[in-house]
Fold:
Amino acid sequence: MTDKKIQSVDQATLEMIEKSHQDGCSTVFDRAENMKPCPIGAEGSCCKNCAMGPCRVPINKSKEETPEDHNKRKGVCGATAETISARNFARMVAAGTAAHGDHGRRVTELFMAVAEGKAPGYSIKDEQKLLQLALELGVKVGDRPNNEIAKDIAEILQKDFSRQEGELNFIKRAPLKRQAVWRQNGVTPRGIDREVVETMHHTHMGVDQDYQNLIKQATRTALADGWGGSMIGTELQDVMFGTPSPVLSQINLGVLKEEDVNIIIHGHEPALAEILAVVSQDPVMIEYAKSKGAKGINLVGMCCTANEILMRHGIPIGGNFLQQELAIVTGAVEAMIVDVQCIMQGLTDVAQCYHTKIITTDERAHITGSTFIHFDELNAIEISKEILKMAIDNFPNRHKNVRIPQVKTDMIAGFSHETITYLLGGLFRASYRPLNDNIINGRIRGVAGVVGCNNPRVTHDDVHVTLVKELIKNDVLVLQTGCSAMATAKAGLMLPEASKFAGEGLASVCETVGIPPVLHLGACVDNCRILTAATAMVKEGGLGDDISDLPVAGCAPEWMSEKAVAIGHYFVASGVYTIFGVTWPTVGSKELTDYLFKGLEQSLGGKWDFEIDPYKMAQKMIAHIDLKRKALGIDKSRERVLYDMAMRRDLEK
Amino acid sequence: MNEILKMKAPNRPEVEVLGPTYEEGTPQGETTGKWSNKLSSRAEILKYLQTGQRYFFSPTNEGFGSEKRKKPA
Structure:
């Protein structure tokens, strides 16, 4: 009897995998069974950067490697396993940074168009965030109209993409000590595009052949993601679409409605989804849907676009990354509208088993076999109506083979940095003080960021949910984004009632503030919100003077994309201990792996780690948090002493 | 709800404390949770930002909180 891996801990997912088999339809779960990962590529030991190769330099796992063995592991050009592995790692960081950077650039272009009044359908919804950015970037406010202020902000931030020298604007947001660490190490990013281009040059055949220097450039590039492309994207989206605040919604495939036209919006950039959220409520469109025999229009999110419209409109989420094909398997989806990132080509094959139309909308992301409708943001409403109409017209083509799993969970999302500040102190005392105080007094042991993707190489959602439950049980407050957030939301951890899973200290704080022990901070591009929150914790005081002093840790338990590597590396470069699960892409080089896991800490204060088991992940994260608590002197309770003036004067001396 | 609960307290007999004061039920409506709507004018927003987001708008470049410590952490 074979010991077959459980494919998911999510009931709706299992039900739809079974249905896909009944319908003779192949999904990512089947493809993962049939296609094992390439063992040489998985460890970063394959170099295909020139036509003298591809060269394979795999490590011999069956015996301890001697220096002679190691010396033989070289490519045709002489590149060592260290160089090859570091090049591959750096290229992953560059690709991830390019994805977030390009997202940020598109948002900035739209923001400029909105400021100039050229994008009907969009507006500046959040004056508070606009003014916040104006103050931060030194833009004059006075009595100037919002669009003038916005134009100045757009002009300043646009330069961050093409800047050749100097520093990105949001670098100044980081704690002063962190900025100094970056400057001392020569890793402060200049321009977002420049860092990506330089990494591609460093990793070209015959250029940079020192693994530490390759990682230095990868670090500079990753920082251009976290404190550059991602942060610009997130901040400007907030101004145009609204800074997230708490919102109640639902998640899982059970949010699809059998009698409605079901439209799924999938991808990452929220410009189209924002307009669809409005247009799908248009009475004319609803009437049109009724004329085709439906009761109404049901807009549902998938992947990170889902997080964006969930946080701002309460639109329900169909599921996370590994559920994208399964939504179609329900047989109840008229159209899946996609833009960029994390969209599987397998969607078009699955859609052929049913009636679903796959509609691509971005000229950067066409898929063979899909219908392409170019989404022009300057003509957003008309194009959105055209797309909706196409979906509605498809309703009568629905087959009889419809089964929607009756599985859905309530969740609360929308905990931006700004909202956390407000929740902790209200309008008059908005502050991180209560959080810092409760970390110092030990009710909250520390804070963990648990983020990232799904990966069919591990049981879907299992590692996320098990890890997060273990962390909150040990009084660690958990901040989440992306598909990881969706996994725990499906498990009911994003409700205030989830305090019952938390340790006594964390539960008491959550109940007092009225928040869940696991906070949803948004899409994967919004991981920069965690950087901002960590910076606010430092600046509030009492927990050291750098992010690397904080009792915090990060984790991507089910990662799969290059964006995840870029995100992980910008957290490490910002001083955070960061663990990845599933697989580690540099195990082909022990020297490089040791450098990432130990050496980097000496210069940057943060380091990488790798662990598959969620319980051991939690233990490692908690051990690191405890180490930081000890360094801060808050590892044990102290007798409280009321200081009189004489004692204070003594203290000054 | 204004329930009074009896709780244990250190070095004291039972004390009476105010119980949960939340409103029961599920919040409804588009404005639920939109706390920033409470700030109606630009002047109010700017005033709030200078306190609520004080971490990022230092009048000087000295930083805040622990950043200003004389001895490193």
Summary: Chain A has three domains: 81-241, 247-397, 420-632. Residues 157 and 384 of chain A are 28 Å apart (CA to CA). The mean pLDDT of chain A is 95. The two ends of chain A are 75 Å apart (CA to CA).
